[in-house]
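Much of what follows relies on a compact textual record of a protein's fold. Here is one such record, which you should read through line by line:
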Amino acid sequence: MIPSVEEFKKHMERLRIRRTDNIICYDNVGIFSSPRVAWTMELFGAERVRVLNGGFKKWLKDGRPTESGPEKID
């Protein structure tokens, strides 16, 4: 199901995600629900949405960089 515009907007504001952000969607199990998330983001007007090919496990397996901890907002 698709959330209402109001519900979607409420959650995006809480997460500080803007439609002009670079948005990367990924799963911990490969590619399961991330395409649906990406599609929903695009449906509501996000301009730059991508799905991480292979998910987070592949990202780690490939030795790519990660960050943890609170987000640093400038």
